[in-house]
Amino acid sequence: MTFQDFNLKPQIQKAIDLAGFKEPSPIQRESIPVILTGRDIVGQAHTGTGKTAAFALPMLNMLEINDEVEGLIIVPTRELATQVSDEVFRLGKFLGIKTATVYGGSSYSRQLHHIESASVVVATPGRLLDLLKSGKIELNPSFVVLDEADEMLDMGFLDDIKAIFEFLPSNRQTMLFSATMPNEIKELASKILYNPAFISITKNEVTNENIKQYYYVVDERERDEALIRLLDYKAPSKAIIFCRMKVEVDRLNEFLNAQGISAKGLHGDMQQRQREDVIQSFKKGNTEILIATDVAARGLDISDVTHVFNYHIPFDPQSYVHRIGRTGRAGREGIAISLVTPHEFKQLLRIQKAVGSALINKEIPTSSELKEKKQNSTLERVLATQISTEAIELINLLEAQTDLSTIALKLASMVIEDEKVAGREKIGKSKKEIERLIRQFENEKRRPNRARNSFTRGQRKSPRTRRH
Protein backbone atom coordinates (compact mmCIF):
# COMPACT_ATOMS: atom_id res chain seq x y z
CA MET A 1 0.00 0.00 0.00
CA THR A 2 1.15 3.57 -0.72
CA PHE A 3 -0.13 6.97 0.38
CA GLN A 4 -1.58 7.48 -3.10
CA ASP A 5 -4.14 4.77 -2.28
CA PHE A 6 -5.82 7.20 0.14
CA ASN A 7 -6.73 9.55 -2.77
CA LEU A 8 -5.78 12.66 -0.79
CA LYS A 9 -5.77 16.14 -2.32
CA PRO A 10 -2.92 16.69 -4.81
CA GLN A 11 -1.45 19.43 -2.59
CA ILE A 12 -1.24 16.99 0.32
CA GLN A 13 0.21 14.21 -1.82
CA LYS A 14 2.85 16.68 -3.01
CA ALA A 15 3.83 17.39 0.62
CA ILE A 16 3.91 13.63 1.36
CA ASP A 17 6.23 13.02 -1.59
CA LEU A 18 8.45 15.93 -0.58
CA ALA A 19 8.67 14.56 2.97
CA GLY A 20 9.88 11.24 1.55
CA PHE A 21 7.01 9.15 2.95
CA LYS A 22 6.60 5.90 1.00
CA GLU A 23 4.43 3.29 2.70
CA PRO A 24 1.99 4.18 5.50
CA SER A 25 2.72 2.72 8.93
CA PRO A 26 0.15 0.32 10.47
CA ILE A 27 -1.57 3.05 12.51
CA GLN A 28 -1.72 5.28 9.43
CA ARG A 29 -2.96 2.46 7.21
CA GLU A 30 -5.78 1.62 9.63
CA SER A 31 -6.72 5.11 10.85
CA ILE A 32 -6.67 7.33 7.77
CA PRO A 33 -9.53 5.61 5.84
CA VAL A 34 -11.74 5.60 8.96
CA ILE A 35 -11.10 9.26 9.76
CA LEU A 36 -11.84 10.22 6.13
CA THR A 37 -15.36 8.77 6.59
CA GLY A 38 -15.96 11.32 9.35
CA ARG A 39 -16.13 8.81 12.19
CA ASP A 40 -14.68 9.38 15.67
CA ILE A 41 -11.69 7.20 16.43
CA VAL A 42 -9.64 5.82 19.32
CA GLY A 43 -6.17 4.86 18.10
CA GLN A 44 -3.68 2.96 20.22
CA ALA A 45 -0.08 2.78 19.01
CA HIS A 46 3.32 3.11 20.61
CA THR A 47 5.32 6.31 20.19
CA GLY A 48 7.30 6.88 17.03
CA THR A 49 4.88 5.06 14.70
CA GLY A 50 3.57 8.05 12.75
CA LYS A 51 0.51 8.96 14.81
CA THR A 52 0.79 12.65 13.88
CA ALA A 53 0.42 11.94 10.16
CA ALA A 54 -2.31 9.40 10.97
CA PHE A 55 -4.62 12.17 12.15
CA ALA A 56 -3.10 15.19 10.37
CA LEU A 57 -3.37 13.90 6.79
CA PRO A 58 -7.11 13.08 6.80
CA MET A 59 -7.91 16.20 8.83
CA LEU A 60 -6.02 18.42 6.37
CA ASN A 61 -7.81 16.70 3.50
CA MET A 62 -11.21 17.64 4.96
CA LEU A 63 -10.44 21.27 5.90
CA GLU A 64 -12.48 23.89 4.08
CA ILE A 65 -9.82 26.58 4.79
CA ASN A 66 -12.40 29.27 5.56
CA ASP A 67 -10.31 31.70 7.66
CA GLU A 68 -11.48 30.06 10.89
CA VAL A 69 -9.93 27.54 13.27
CA GLU A 70 -11.20 24.23 11.91
CA GLY A 71 -8.79 21.88 13.65
CA LEU A 72 -7.75 21.71 17.33
CA ILE A 73 -4.98 19.36 18.48
CA ILE A 74 -4.39 19.02 22.24
CA VAL A 75 -1.01 17.65 23.40
CA PRO A 76 0.63 17.27 26.83
CA THR A 77 3.82 19.36 26.50
CA ARG A 78 5.24 22.51 24.90
CA GLU A 79 7.86 20.55 23.02
CA LEU A 80 5.27 18.23 21.49
CA ALA A 81 3.02 21.19 20.64
CA THR A 82 5.84 22.75 18.63
CA GLN A 83 6.74 19.48 16.92
CA VAL A 84 3.13 18.62 15.98
CA SER A 85 2.51 22.17 14.74
CA ASP A 86 5.60 21.99 12.54
CA GLU A 87 4.53 18.61 11.14
CA VAL A 88 0.97 19.75 10.39
CA PHE A 89 2.28 22.89 8.68
CA ARG A 90 4.75 20.84 6.64
CA LEU A 91 2.04 18.44 5.44
CA GLY A 92 -0.45 21.23 4.70
CA LYS A 93 1.80 23.96 3.34
CA PHE A 94 0.68 23.52 -0.28
CA LEU A 95 -2.92 24.01 0.88
CA GLY A 96 -1.91 27.41 2.25
CA ILE A 97 -2.89 26.59 5.83
CA LYS A 98 -1.42 28.28 8.89
CA THR A 99 -0.97 26.76 12.32
CA ALA A 100 -0.84 28.38 15.76
CA THR A 101 0.97 26.92 18.76
CA VAL A 102 -0.49 27.67 22.18
CA TYR A 103 1.28 26.86 25.46
CA GLY A 104 2.14 28.40 28.81
CA GLY A 105 5.20 30.56 29.40
CA SER A 106 4.83 32.45 26.13
CA SER A 107 3.22 35.78 25.18
CA TYR A 108 -0.60 35.84 25.23
CA SER A 109 -0.82 38.60 22.62
CA ARG A 110 1.46 36.80 20.15
CA GLN A 111 -0.45 33.53 20.49
CA LEU A 112 -3.84 35.29 20.12
CA HIS A 113 -2.55 37.04 16.99
CA HIS A 114 -1.49 33.71 15.46
CA ILE A 115 -4.84 32.08 16.32
CA GLU A 116 -6.69 34.79 14.36
CA SER A 117 -5.18 33.59 11.06
CA ALA A 118 -4.80 29.87 11.83
CA SER A 119 -6.66 26.91 10.35
CA VAL A 120 -5.22 24.52 12.96
CA VAL A 121 -4.38 25.25 16.60
CA VAL A 122 -2.02 22.97 18.54
CA ALA A 123 -2.28 23.57 22.29
CA THR A 124 -1.36 22.30 25.73
CA PRO A 125 -4.34 21.86 28.10
CA GLY A 126 -3.45 24.47 30.74
CA ARG A 127 -3.00 27.50 28.46
CA LEU A 128 -5.90 26.47 26.20
CA LEU A 129 -8.33 26.22 29.13
CA ASP A 130 -7.05 29.54 30.44
CA LEU A 131 -7.83 31.26 27.12
CA LEU A 132 -11.25 29.62 26.85
CA LYS A 133 -12.30 30.41 30.44
CA SER A 134 -11.17 34.02 30.21
CA GLY A 135 -13.14 34.54 27.00
CA LYS A 136 -10.02 35.56 25.08
CA ILE A 137 -10.85 33.01 22.39
CA GLU A 138 -13.90 31.12 21.13
CA LEU A 139 -13.30 28.00 19.10
CA ASN A 140 -15.72 26.12 16.89
CA PRO A 141 -13.48 23.39 15.40
CA SER A 142 -14.83 20.68 13.14
CA PHE A 143 -11.96 18.37 14.13
CA VAL A 144 -10.51 17.80 17.61
CA VAL A 145 -7.53 15.57 18.37
CA LEU A 146 -6.28 14.39 21.76
CA ASP A 147 -2.69 13.22 21.20
CA GLU A 148 -0.69 11.24 23.81
CA ALA A 149 -3.82 11.02 26.00
CA ASP A 150 -2.23 8.71 28.56
CA GLU A 151 0.63 11.16 29.11
CA MET A 152 -1.90 13.92 29.76
CA LEU A 153 -3.49 11.64 32.34
CA ASP A 154 -0.12 11.01 33.99
CA MET A 155 0.59 14.75 34.10
CA GLY A 156 -2.72 15.51 35.85
CA PHE A 157 -4.53 17.14 32.91
CA LEU A 158 -7.63 14.94 32.92
CA ASP A 159 -9.88 17.52 34.63
CA ASP A 160 -8.59 20.25 32.29
CA ILE A 161 -9.41 18.08 29.28
CA LYS A 162 -12.94 17.49 30.50
CA ALA A 163 -13.38 21.23 31.11
CA ILE A 164 -12.05 22.12 27.65
CA PHE A 165 -14.65 19.92 25.95
CA GLU A 166 -17.43 21.90 27.65
CA PHE A 167 -16.36 24.85 25.46
CA LEU A 168 -16.30 22.86 22.21
CA PRO A 169 -19.20 22.20 19.83
CA SER A 170 -20.92 18.83 19.91
CA ASN A 171 -21.02 18.52 16.10
CA ARG A 172 -17.33 17.75 15.76
CA GLN A 173 -15.20 14.79 14.74
CA THR A 174 -13.01 13.69 17.66
CA MET A 175 -9.85 11.59 17.49
CA LEU A 176 -8.07 10.23 20.56
CA PHE A 177 -4.61 8.69 20.30
CA SER A 178 -2.70 7.03 23.11
CA ALA A 179 0.20 4.59 23.56
CA THR A 180 -1.57 2.80 26.43
CA MET A 181 -5.21 2.54 27.44
CA PRO A 182 -5.68 2.86 31.21
CA ASN A 183 -9.27 2.79 32.49
CA GLU A 184 -9.40 6.57 32.94
CA ILE A 185 -8.67 7.08 29.24
CA LYS A 186 -11.33 4.55 28.25
CA GLU A 187 -13.85 6.41 30.45
CA LEU A 188 -12.83 9.74 28.91
CA ALA A 189 -13.26 8.32 25.41
CA SER A 190 -16.77 7.12 26.26
CA LYS A 191 -17.73 10.68 27.30
CA ILE A 192 -16.19 12.82 24.55
CA LEU A 193 -16.43 10.53 21.50
CA TYR A 194 -19.52 9.37 19.63
CA ASN A 195 -19.62 5.74 18.48
CA PRO A 196 -15.85 5.66 17.88
CA ALA A 197 -13.95 3.12 15.84
CA PHE A 198 -11.26 1.41 17.95
CA ILE A 199 -7.94 0.77 16.25
CA SER A 200 -5.62 -0.99 18.64
CA ILE A 201 -2.41 -2.92 18.41
CA THR A 202 -2.25 -6.37 20.02
CA LYS A 203 -0.73 -6.91 23.44
CA ASN A 204 2.53 -8.34 22.13
CA GLU A 205 2.95 -5.19 20.05
CA VAL A 206 2.61 -2.72 22.94
CA THR A 207 6.29 -1.95 22.55
CA ASN A 208 7.88 -1.24 19.19
CA GLU A 209 9.10 -4.44 17.54
CA ASN A 210 12.07 -2.46 16.15
CA ILE A 211 13.40 -2.02 19.70
CA LYS A 212 15.66 -4.71 21.14
CA GLN A 213 15.27 -4.83 24.92
CA TYR A 214 18.00 -5.99 27.31
CA TYR A 215 18.52 -5.92 31.06
CA TYR A 216 21.63 -6.28 33.21
CA VAL A 217 21.52 -7.27 36.88
CA VAL A 218 23.93 -5.35 39.10
CA ASP A 219 24.34 -4.51 42.76
CA GLU A 220 23.25 -1.00 43.75
CA ARG A 221 26.86 0.17 44.22
CA GLU A 222 27.71 -0.96 40.67
CA ARG A 223 25.22 1.21 38.76
CA ASP A 224 27.66 3.95 37.76
CA GLU A 225 30.41 1.50 36.79
CA ALA A 226 27.95 -0.59 34.79
CA LEU A 227 26.60 2.46 32.96
CA ILE A 228 30.07 3.67 31.98
CA ARG A 229 31.08 0.18 30.81
CA LEU A 230 27.93 -0.14 28.69
CA LEU A 231 28.28 3.33 27.21
CA ASP A 232 31.88 2.50 26.37
CA TYR A 233 30.99 -0.87 24.83
CA LYS A 234 27.80 0.13 22.98
CA ALA A 235 29.22 3.50 21.84
CA PRO A 236 25.79 5.05 21.14
CA SER A 237 25.74 7.99 18.75
CA LYS A 238 22.74 9.50 20.52
CA ALA A 239 21.26 8.14 23.76
CA ILE A 240 18.78 9.06 26.50
CA ILE A 241 19.37 7.93 30.09
CA PHE A 242 16.25 7.93 32.26
CA CYS A 243 16.39 8.63 35.99
CA ARG A 244 13.59 8.73 38.54
CA MET A 245 14.49 11.97 40.30
CA LYS A 246 15.84 15.42 39.41
CA VAL A 247 18.69 15.13 41.91
CA GLU A 248 19.72 11.90 40.21
CA VAL A 249 19.80 13.65 36.83
CA ASP A 250 22.08 16.40 38.17
CA ARG A 251 24.43 13.97 39.89
CA LEU A 252 24.70 11.64 36.89
CA ASN A 253 25.22 14.60 34.55
CA GLU A 254 28.15 15.80 36.64
CA PHE A 255 29.56 12.27 36.90
CA LEU A 256 29.43 11.53 33.15
CA ASN A 257 30.98 14.85 32.18
CA ALA A 258 33.79 14.18 34.66
CA GLN A 259 34.42 10.95 32.70
CA GLY A 260 34.77 12.92 29.47
CA ILE A 261 31.31 12.00 28.16
CA SER A 262 29.29 14.73 26.43
CA ALA A 263 26.06 14.79 28.46
CA LYS A 264 23.36 17.25 29.54
CA GLY A 265 20.53 16.94 32.03
CA LEU A 266 16.83 17.72 31.54
CA HIS A 267 14.30 18.01 34.36
CA GLY A 268 11.34 20.04 35.58
CA ASP A 269 13.26 22.56 37.68
CA MET A 270 14.93 24.05 34.60
CA GLN A 271 13.77 27.28 32.96
CA GLN A 272 12.04 26.90 29.59
CA ARG A 273 14.95 28.59 27.80
CA GLN A 274 17.38 26.13 29.41
CA ARG A 275 15.20 23.21 28.37
CA GLU A 276 15.06 24.42 24.78
CA ASP A 277 18.82 24.90 24.64
CA VAL A 278 19.46 21.38 25.98
CA ILE A 279 16.97 19.79 23.56
CA GLN A 280 18.35 21.68 20.55
CA SER A 281 21.92 20.73 21.49
CA PHE A 282 20.87 17.08 21.67
CA LYS A 283 18.89 17.21 18.42
CA LYS A 284 21.80 18.76 16.53
CA GLY A 285 24.24 16.15 17.85
CA ASN A 286 26.30 18.60 19.91
CA THR A 287 25.39 16.52 22.97
CA GLU A 288 25.69 12.73 22.80
CA ILE A 289 23.80 11.83 25.99
CA LEU A 290 20.59 13.32 27.36
CA ILE A 291 19.84 12.49 31.02
CA ALA A 292 16.19 13.06 31.85
CA THR A 293 13.30 12.37 34.17
CA ASP A 294 10.10 10.85 32.77
CA VAL A 295 8.18 14.13 32.94
CA ALA A 296 10.96 16.19 31.34
CA ALA A 297 11.29 13.79 28.38
CA ARG A 298 7.58 13.68 27.58
CA GLY A 299 6.79 14.90 24.12
CA LEU A 300 10.34 14.60 22.81
CA ASP A 301 10.31 13.53 19.18
CA ILE A 302 13.90 12.91 18.11
CA SER A 303 14.04 10.29 15.37
CA ASP A 304 17.72 9.28 15.54
CA VAL A 305 18.07 8.20 19.20
CA THR A 306 19.95 4.88 19.00
CA HIS A 307 19.82 3.81 22.67
CA VAL A 308 17.64 4.31 25.74
CA PHE A 309 19.10 3.45 29.16
CA ASN A 310 17.00 2.97 32.28
CA TYR A 311 19.41 3.91 35.07
CA HIS A 312 16.60 2.80 37.37
CA ILE A 313 13.63 0.90 35.96
CA PRO A 314 10.37 2.88 36.19
CA PHE A 315 7.64 2.16 38.71
CA ASP A 316 5.01 1.10 36.17
CA PRO A 317 4.76 -0.55 32.73
CA GLN A 318 3.29 2.57 31.06
CA SER A 319 6.37 4.61 31.95
CA TYR A 320 8.57 1.84 30.58
CA VAL A 321 6.69 1.89 27.26
CA HIS A 322 7.02 5.66 26.99
CA ARG A 323 10.71 5.63 27.90
CA ILE A 324 11.87 3.04 25.42
CA GLY A 325 9.60 4.53 22.75
CA ARG A 326 12.13 7.37 22.42
CA THR A 327 14.28 5.03 20.32
CA GLY A 328 13.37 2.87 17.32
CA ARG A 329 11.37 5.71 15.78
CA ALA A 330 10.41 6.28 12.15
CA GLY A 331 11.19 2.67 11.21
CA ARG A 332 14.72 2.71 12.62
CA GLU A 333 16.07 0.05 14.96
CA GLY A 334 16.68 0.95 18.59
CA ILE A 335 18.13 -0.59 21.73
CA ALA A 336 16.67 -0.30 25.23
CA ILE A 337 18.87 -1.21 28.20
CA SER A 338 17.75 -1.48 31.83
CA LEU A 339 19.92 -1.75 34.93
CA VAL A 340 18.23 -3.68 37.74
CA THR A 341 19.25 -4.96 41.15
CA PRO A 342 18.11 -8.30 42.61
CA HIS A 343 15.61 -6.38 44.77
CA GLU A 344 14.07 -4.80 41.63
CA PHE A 345 13.80 -8.11 39.81
CA LYS A 346 10.16 -8.71 40.69
CA GLN A 347 9.32 -5.27 39.32
CA LEU A 348 11.20 -6.01 36.10
CA LEU A 349 9.34 -9.28 35.50
CA ARG A 350 6.02 -7.55 36.17
CA ILE A 351 6.86 -4.96 33.50
CA GLN A 352 7.89 -7.69 31.08
CA LYS A 353 4.58 -9.48 31.58
CA ALA A 354 2.56 -6.26 31.16
CA VAL A 355 4.24 -5.09 27.95
CA GLY A 356 4.12 -8.56 26.46
CA SER A 357 7.59 -8.56 24.96
CA ALA A 358 10.76 -10.37 25.91
CA LEU A 359 13.48 -8.56 27.82
CA ILE A 360 16.70 -10.47 27.27
CA ASN A 361 19.13 -10.82 30.18
CA LYS A 362 22.77 -10.08 29.39
CA GLU A 363 26.07 -9.87 31.26
CA ILE A 364 27.98 -6.60 31.53
CA PRO A 365 30.97 -6.88 29.17
CA THR A 366 34.23 -7.54 31.01
CA SER A 367 37.13 -5.12 30.70
CA SER A 368 38.93 -7.75 28.57
CA GLU A 369 35.97 -7.93 26.16
CA LEU A 370 35.83 -4.16 25.95
CA LYS A 371 39.58 -3.96 25.33
CA GLU A 372 39.31 -6.53 22.53
CA LYS A 373 36.43 -4.66 20.92
CA LYS A 374 38.34 -1.38 21.03
CA GLN A 375 41.41 -3.02 19.52
CA ASN A 376 39.35 -4.49 16.67
CA SER A 377 37.68 -1.14 16.08
CA THR A 378 41.06 0.62 16.03
CA LEU A 379 42.44 -1.97 13.62
CA GLU A 380 39.51 -1.50 11.22
CA ARG A 381 39.81 2.28 11.45
CA VAL A 382 43.55 2.25 10.79
CA LEU A 383 43.23 -0.09 7.79
CA ALA A 384 40.39 1.99 6.32
CA THR A 385 42.17 5.35 6.74
CA GLN A 386 43.42 7.01 3.58
CA ILE A 387 47.04 8.23 3.67
CA SER A 388 47.17 12.02 3.51
CA THR A 389 49.92 14.34 2.31
CA GLU A 390 50.22 15.75 5.84
CA ALA A 391 50.83 12.23 7.20
CA ILE A 392 53.66 11.65 4.71
CA GLU A 393 55.23 14.95 5.72
CA LEU A 394 54.96 14.04 9.41
CA ILE A 395 56.58 10.62 8.88
CA ASN A 396 59.42 12.23 6.92
CA LEU A 397 60.05 14.60 9.83
CA LEU A 398 59.94 11.74 12.34
CA GLU A 399 62.28 9.57 10.25
CA ALA A 400 64.94 12.21 10.74
CA GLN A 401 64.75 11.44 14.47
CA THR A 402 64.22 7.65 14.64
CA ASP A 403 63.46 4.50 12.61
CA LEU A 404 60.05 3.54 11.15
CA SER A 405 59.51 0.67 13.59
CA THR A 406 59.86 2.99 16.59
CA ILE A 407 57.60 5.58 14.94
CA ALA A 408 54.90 2.96 14.42
CA LEU A 409 55.13 1.76 18.02
CA LYS A 410 54.94 5.31 19.40
CA LEU A 411 51.91 6.19 17.26
CA ALA A 412 50.20 2.95 18.32
CA SER A 413 50.97 3.74 21.97
CA MET A 414 49.32 7.15 21.56
CA VAL A 415 46.17 5.53 20.16
CA ILE A 416 46.09 2.90 22.94
CA GLU A 417 46.54 5.59 25.60
CA ASP A 418 43.41 7.33 24.33
CA GLU A 419 41.42 4.09 24.42
CA LYS A 420 42.39 2.69 27.81
CA VAL A 421 39.75 0.60 29.57
CA ALA A 422 38.96 1.66 33.10
CA GLY A 423 37.21 -0.22 35.89
CA ARG A 424 37.15 -3.73 37.27
CA GLU A 425 37.32 -6.81 35.06
CA LYS A 426 33.87 -8.04 36.14
CA ILE A 427 30.78 -5.94 36.88
CA GLY A 428 27.29 -7.22 37.66
CA LYS A 429 25.72 -10.66 37.84
CA SER A 430 26.59 -13.58 35.57
CA LYS A 431 24.07 -15.45 33.42
CA LYS A 432 23.99 -18.29 35.95
CA GLU A 433 23.33 -15.89 38.82
CA ILE A 434 20.52 -14.23 36.85
CA GLU A 435 18.96 -17.60 36.02
CA ARG A 436 19.11 -18.49 39.71
CA LEU A 437 17.28 -15.25 40.55
CA ILE A 438 14.57 -16.13 38.05
CA ARG A 439 14.15 -19.59 39.58
CA GLN A 440 14.00 -18.13 43.08
CA PHE A 441 11.30 -15.70 41.99
CA GLU A 442 9.26 -18.47 40.35
CA ASN A 443 9.56 -20.60 43.50
CA GLU A 444 8.48 -17.64 45.60
CA LYS A 445 5.34 -17.25 43.48
CA ARG A 446 4.47 -20.90 44.01
CA ARG A 447 5.11 -20.81 47.79
CA PRO A 448 4.21 -17.26 48.90
CA ASN A 449 4.00 -18.13 52.60
CA ARG A 450 7.34 -19.85 52.93
CA ALA A 451 10.45 -18.33 54.49
CA ARG A 452 11.88 -15.26 52.82
CA ASN A 453 14.27 -15.73 49.93
CA SER A 454 16.89 -13.32 48.59
CA PHE A 455 14.21 -10.95 47.32
CA THR A 456 12.75 -10.32 50.77
CA ARG A 457 15.71 -10.96 53.03
CA GLY A 458 16.37 -7.96 55.22
CA GLN A 459 12.77 -6.73 55.00
CA ARG A 460 11.28 -8.71 57.90
CA LYS A 461 9.07 -6.87 60.32
CA SER A 462 10.48 -5.51 63.53
CA PRO A 463 9.29 -7.08 66.82
CA ARG A 464 7.11 -4.03 67.46
CA THR A 465 5.08 -4.43 64.26
CA ARG A 466 5.04 -8.22 63.99
CA ARG A 467 1.77 -9.89 64.82
CA HIS A 468 1.67 -12.18 67.87
How would you summarize the topology of this molecule?
Layout: H1 10-19, H2 26-36, E1 41-44, H3 51-62, E2 71-74, H4 78-92, E3 99-102, H5 108-116, E4 120-123, H6 125-133, E5 143-146, H7 149-154, H8 158-165, E6 173-178, H9 183-192, E7 197-200, E8 211-217, H10 223-234, E9 239-243, H11 246-258, E10 263-266, H12 272-283, E11 289-293, H13 294-297, E12 307-310, H14 317-324, E13 334-340, H15 345-355, E14 360-361, H16 367-384, H17 389-399, H18 404-418, H19 431-446
Parallel strand pairs: 1-6, 1-7, 2-4, 2-5, 3-4, 5-6, 8-13, 8-14, 9-11, 9-12, 10-11, 12-13
Q: What labels would you give this structure?
A:
468 residues; alpha/beta; Rossmann fold; 3 domains; seven-stranded parallel β-sheet; disordered C terminus
Q: How would you describe this structure to a colleague?
A:
The protein has helices at 10-19, 26-36, 51-62, 78-92, 108-116, 125-133, 149-154, 158-165, 183-192, 223-234, 246-258, 272-283, 294-297, 317-324, 345-355, 367-384, 389-399, 404-418, 431-446; strands at residues 41-44, 71-74, 99-102, 120-123, 143-146, 173-178, 197-200, 211-217, 239-243, 263-266, 289-293, 307-310, 334-340, 360-361. It is α/β, with parallel strands linked by helices and 468 residues long. The protein has a 7-stranded parallel β-sheet. Strands 10-11-9-12-13-8-14 form a 7-stranded parallel β-sheet, sandwiched between helices. α2 packs parallel to α3, α3 packs across α4 and α6 runs parallel beside α8 (158-165). The termini are far apart. The model is unreliable at 448-468 (pLDDT under 50).
